[in-house]
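Propose amino acids for all 434 sites.
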């Protein structure tokens, strides 16, 4: 057999079983930086002006507010304290209830708890995995003060329905936009639709400075409350505001990275949108157990922290999601599972001595240990798949290789099943000592 035929033969064998992976091109690296950041960074270092609302932080706040269509923006230390500041700025107080989705990063729940409020966790929409407006309606009580819709992974929350519920019950809407810098709903920017927006700039995010966050709003009164909360009690006019004294500031060095990243973000968002559409169309043509989440037509621009994908066990020939993902990963398709249900997170075990969250009266707090949300648990345990955003920056050829990887696994599902069945049999034999 000549080398060409040998190569083709290896390509037809699953990488899981020793074949050549379908994806040969490297995944695009993240994060990235350009020459402008290097030049600006040197200027900041030499200036000695490293914090306290320097020229780069001031400029970024103006540029980012303009980018999402908000009147005001302020930068903070990270995306957890951005939620805390946002909640306090719209009037959430200790003892109030804040409704949050059951599938999100733990900070969405941690933030209201950190300021003394109680987080009420509800179920999600099965297609987008965002908070279900019907579940919000059912959870409203006399103590409810706010809703935190999370624009999760690659789908926006239904802002029409959420704002409608909020208006009818006189609730504040605090958008968690940690995943979707640049998404637009009916051509309104995420983070400028509700009463206040919260962003994260942590290293994995599509706009990053390593760590950091931002609060955005259109209400001057909200901004004037939020600013002293992050700036050791000083107001936007750089005069003491009186009663607030947190230090949640970022630095000029971080602002340099954000300004540079913001200049690339529109083009990166366009590229991710195009590649996500190509992948969605390709997956639909291939059939099999994997498909893309359907895009709501009211979303006029979709930013992607991850591409939201659905695994259907009915079309997997007995292969589990974990086994399917292992086969895809071996081929070079870098997919993974979503977060675990947030109510399973160890941080929410208030009664453990290691918990950093103060004790809560169990009569006033939702019983997270006993909570069961069926859609959340099905997505997290069985059907949810995510593809991280750096992959969506790949070339046309790279995206083509990703689809080849899916086709290869789909064409060899029986071989995947046999591979893991043999592993299980060997492990059982080892345990039994035979």
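Proposal:
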């Amino acid at each position: 057999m000549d080398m060409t035929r040998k190569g083709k033969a290896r390509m037809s064998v699953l990488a899981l079983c020793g074949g050549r992976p379908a994806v040969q091109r490297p995944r695009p690296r993240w994060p990235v930086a350009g020459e402008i950041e290097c030049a600006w960074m040197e200027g900041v270092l030499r200036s000695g002006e490293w914090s306290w609302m320097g020229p780069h932080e001031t400029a970024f706040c103006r540029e980012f507010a303009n980018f999402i269509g908000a009147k005001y923006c302020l930068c903070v230390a990270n995306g957890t304290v951005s939620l805390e500041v946002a909640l306090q700025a719209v009037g959430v107080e200790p003892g109030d209830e804040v409704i949050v989705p059951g599938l999100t990063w733990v900070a969405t729940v941690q933030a209201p708890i950190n300021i003394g409020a109680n987080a009420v966790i509800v179920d999600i929409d099965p297609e987008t995995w965002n908070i279900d407006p019907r579940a919000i309606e059912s959870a409203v009580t006399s103590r409810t003060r706010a809703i935190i819709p999370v624009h999760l992974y690659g789908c926006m929350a239904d802002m029409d329905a959420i704002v409608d519920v909020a208006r009818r019950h006189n609730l504040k809407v605090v958008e968690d936009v940690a995943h979707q810098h640049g998404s637009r709903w009916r051509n309104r920017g995420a983070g400028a639709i509700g009463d206040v927006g919260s962003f994260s700039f942590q290293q994995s995010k599509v706009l990053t400075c390593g760590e950091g966050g931002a609060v955005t709003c259109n209400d001057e009164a909200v901004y004037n409350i939020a600013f002293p909360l992050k700036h050791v009690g000083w107001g936007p006019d750089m005069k003491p505001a009186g009663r607030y004294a947190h230090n949640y500031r970022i630095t000029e060095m971080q602002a340099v990275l954000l300004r540079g990243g913001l200049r690339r973000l529109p083009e990166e968002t366009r590229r991710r949108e195009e590649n996500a559409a190509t992948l969605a169309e390709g997956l639909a043509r291939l059939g099999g157990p994997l498909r893309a989440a359907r895009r709501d037509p009211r979303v006029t621009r979709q930013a992607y922290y991850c591409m939201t994908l659905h695994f259907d066990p009915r079309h997997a020939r007995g292969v589990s999601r974990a086994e399917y993902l292992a086969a895809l990963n071996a081929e070079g398709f870098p997919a993974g599972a979503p977060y675990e249900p947030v109510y399973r997170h160890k941080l929410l075990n208030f009664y453990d001595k290691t918990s950093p969250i103060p004790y809560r009266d169990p009569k006033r707090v939702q019983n997270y240990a006993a909570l069961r949300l069926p859609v959340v648990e099905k997505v997290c345990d069985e059907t949810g798949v995510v593809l991280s955003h750096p992959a969506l920056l790949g070339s046309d050829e790279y995206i083509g290789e990703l689809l080849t990887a899916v086709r290869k696994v789909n064409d060899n599902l029986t071989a995947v099943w046999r591979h893991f069945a043999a592993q299980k049999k060997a492990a059982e034999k080892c345990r039994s000592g035979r």
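The chain has a mean pLDDT of 93. The first helix runs from residue 3 to 12.
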